[in-house]
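Researcher: Here's my situation. A collaborator sent me these components and asked whether they could plausibly form a single complex. I don't have experimental data yet, so a predicted model of the whole assembly would be a useful starting point for our discussion.
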Amino acid sequence: MTDTSITPTTQPGDWASDQEVRWCPGCGDYSILTAMRMLMPSLGTEPHNTVFVSGIGCAARFPYYMNSYGVHGIHGRAPAIATGLAMARPDLDVWVIGGDGDMLSIGGNHLIHALRRNVKIKVLLFNNQIYGLTKGQFSPTSEIGKVTKSSPMGSLDAPFNPLAVALGAEASFVARTHDMDRQHMMETFRRAHEHDGAAFVEVFQNCNVFNDGAFEGVTKKQNRDANLIPLKNGEPIQFGADGEFGVIDESGCARVVHTAEVGTDELLMHDESKHDPSTAFMLARLARGPFEPTPVGVFRAVRRSEYAMASTRQLAAAQEKQGPADISQLLRSRGTWYV
Amino acid sequence: MTDTASRELPLQEIDEVIIRFAGDSGDGMQLTGDQFTSISAALGNDLSTLPEFPAEIRAPQGTLAGVSAFQVRISDFDITTPGDAPTVLVAMNPAALKAQLHNLTQGGALILNTDAFNERNLEKAGYSSNPLDDGTLDDYRAYPVPMSQITRDAVAEHGVKPRDAERSKNFFALGLISWMYTRPVEPTFEFINTKFRGREQVINANTAAFKAGYNFGETAEIFEAHYEVKPAPLAPGEYTNVNGNTALAWGCVVAGQLARLPVFLGSYPITPASDILHEMSLKKNFGVRTFQAEDEIAAAASAVGAAFGGALAFTSTSGPGLALKGETLSLAVSLELPMVVLDIQRGGPSTGLPTKPEQADLMMAMYGRHSESPLPVVAPRSPADCFDIAIEASRIALKYRTPVIVLSDGYLANSSEPWLLPDVDSLPDIGVEFATEFNGTNEDGDGIYLPYLRDPESLARPWAIPGTPGLMHRVGGIEKEDGTGNISYDPENHQLMVDVRQAKIDGVDVPDVEVAGDVDADLVMLGWGSTWGAIDAAAGRLRDDGFEVAHVHLRHLNPLPANLGDVLRRYRAVVCPEMNKGQLSDLVRARYLIDVEHFGKIDGVPFTTGEVTAAVRKRLEELSGSN
């Protein structure tokens, strides 16, 4: 899958800033950072044409560690800041990094609007199902009943399913990966980068201090065969050591079956380019949580008009129709008279 | 205009007239007023307008809540306000009469659409008896005119459905008033043809209604005279008629040209600021990108992002929106990126009076952010000044890499005046250089970019935009180390950065204030923003009455002009009229320990000249008594 036409002009080390990385030792963020730095040279882009934008939270420190341009903004607003930047500068690669609290709680509104507009920003949501930087309160992706400092008797809040939210907002690119598989992360991030529009990637990320092992049920090596469903475009959705499990569409609901019982032909064929997001939505909701078979990979990748370019086309059309900028003409546009 | 010879009515020359058109919000009063204004502007009158409309788009027909009005003052001399009280009131229905009659000067002219004074409308307006014949109008010169009926008759031949026929009655009113004040008719015919292009029936109906109104004045034998207001001695040159929001929008567009930067506007619709978004959206041929955001916060945040990318970024709003933008503005203060916030103030708190002006966001603009978050604040003094203030705000923002707040208000936003067009070549160059090279070296002697290495004079940091090779850097809301911009929690560094951010804003180059009027008077009126017109006119009246009075008007509110304290200390009394509970008064008192006397009102209506005159006269008399 690697695009061999690009000759790297940078090395992974060129993408590392001189700042000391200050996440807790063992944090899943480290492996995501490494994957990103390793991926960058192969994307054919330069550090000076790349901007990482973030909000607040552990994940949001990410821009400081990349030797590119970066904005560490305010809580929840990264998609809005990035939208302004991507509109003003369609020539740049704009990445947005945030956690589940940043993107789905305080910034939920900005996220869904950026996705529906299809602005060319690449949104990576590091989901650890907990508030880390504020030291361990339940987050909008925490499971019901989660006991934390702010929910000593268990949280009452039903969690968001990040992919379902993104699909509900008609995001044109929706994917999931996890911090235990560098190659899979790199491949997923690459696909997001290639996508001409808003890309949304949920990254299962372990917070080893406040929510350790939240995703072990699916991401730990010995559990992957049983619980990780790799989505491959154009192939039947199948998993297990020998493909012994599969997913079928049962009256609009995804269901896990034994491949042998239904036959490979009956399995759901994965089609990420399907314009109707219903199948992707069904797959996003297959697992009730990261403890049972969970799909990863690209759920949806469809073409839709990109916002910044559409805005640029309007500028060009206006120039064509109204002529180039002319202050003198502007000041006279409402009619004038002489005294 | 009629073919038959009309009776000869005396033509009286008058120096000014203040007309208020009032009707249902669906009656087209704003359009009528606008068109009368345009004709008068072209005739060379000085003029000033004051639209007044309800917050509801279409309140129930015929009710007081639905009354929409447009006041226009035309004169043969220099004016700065739309006038205190109308001398002519055009009332299209009982509700308009009820809502507006108290504004009309005693003995003023009342032109009434008598057809609308039926039982049902009288009841809706809350009249228990018909004001046309119960003595209510005895103190006025009432001219009853069956406008609806004549309009219906006039448009009938054009095949307009009876139901639609009456919609032309605002043009009847315009025709009648055009006759009364001897306005030329051709411009209105042209206007109708342009405005309703492609809708022949509407053009014909409105033209017929207008002619009917004009002819009615000439032939109906109920008017004693008609009037002429000669041109005003305005400075020679080319003029246009603008309201504050249009001028502000144009100023933003032009600022981009003067800075040679693409303009970005992030905005969320809010009364009375939305017209700025509308107007700038029409200027895409200037490379202006407008972004209607999902909320006020995103509007501001998108502007921060655009500014980081090298655009001249704006966000427009009103008070409730400015409150929401507070945290984002603090970010912009911390990132030290240029952007301009346009706050079109309205009555509050909360939703308050969305369509009415107030000047009560001054303290929020100054201090309405967490922690020490200083930024420059400027305020336009007239509709035309909105153009200049947008350029001035942009200049400061770009030069000092800081967010700047512009405080306009709902009065300036919608009020209009003749504007002598500036010479385009004389507009200032407000361009700044982006950083393109290293500005420091590291321990190994290699070149590096220090995003927070300041210009020693302006204290502005360099502005390197993405896409510039080698100057990659990160900016963020966490406290930054002086010079490098790296995260720093060091106590001394934080003190330094807080101090330097303040010093940068304190050092913004702001012109000294100039005293208008009698420099050696005992009393100075201190104002800011939209009160300029009323204060200036009050100064004129007081002078006419033999008083000496000075006037200082602030366009820069943060930092305040360096000479302000010294200037104000020269006076025995400083009186500050403002549409709030004393916000500028408090600022000036706190800064200079000067006993500023607050004169305020917060009723959603701009100061009248009379109100300011009366208050200041009283104070002047006290002062002369204590001599």
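Model: Some features of this prediction you could bring to your collaborator: Residues 38 and 274 of chain A are 31 Å apart (CA to CA). Residues 307-322 of chain A form the longest helix (16 residues).
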